[in-house]
Design a protein that fits this description.
Blueprint lengths: L1 H22 L17 H24 L4 E2 L4 H4 L4 H4 L2 H21 L8 E4 L5 E2 H24 L13
Parallel strand pairs: 1-2
Antiparallel strand pairs: 2-3
């Protein structure tokens, strides 16, 4: 259970880490799409916050269903191209700590047996509650890394930027 608690602790810290990172980036870069067909910082942030409800529903599904099927989520396919661009990033940032606190409290309340539950995923195999937990943290890290790349990479190195959506 130590590893699980460690991951939950890391998830709890993401809102503070995100705010610290954003404070280091010039605000005029937030809505610039530096890479064709990829999200800007603003969209990365809004998606990260928006995805909390999806992740929480997945955890709840494992609680209420045996061997649940978890459907893949592809935001560019399910949302209009400018969906996250039109959102108010500050409103989303203000919601994030409470959403994440709710998730962390829910995760901390699950008993030991919850963390041995198996499920199915459209793309991943095997799939279970521990993989979902790790995936949730990896999503945080992937978006934080993308934001760092988009916000701090010098323009002469723009071709080397690595980012998700």
């Amino acid at each position: 259970m130590t590893e699980i608690n460690y991951i939950i602790d890391c998830l709890e810290k993401t809102p503070a880490i995100l705010n610290n990172l954003l404070n280091q980036i010039p605000k005029e870069l937030f809505k610039i799409r530096r890479i064709k067909n990829k999200w800007c910082i603003h969209e990365q942030v809004c998606h990260l916050v928006d995805a909390q409800s999806i992740l929480m529903e997945r955890f709840k599904k494992f609680e209420t269903e045996e061997n649940p099927l978890i459907k893949s989520y592809n935001p560019p396919v399910r949302r209009s191209e400018d969906h996250y661009f039109k959102m108010n990033m500050n409103d989303e940032l203000n919601k994030f700590p409470n959403l994440r606190k709710e998730m962390v409290e829910m995760l901390g309340a699950f008993d030991v047996s919850y963390w041995n539950r198996k499920g199915r995923h459209e793309i991943f195999s095997p799939y279970n509650t521990q993989i979902l937990l790790t995936h949730s943290l990896n999503v945080d890290y992937a978006h934080l890394f993308s934001i760092e790349q988009l916000g701090l990479t010098k323009s002469e190195f723009e071709d080397d930027i690595i980012t998700i959506p």
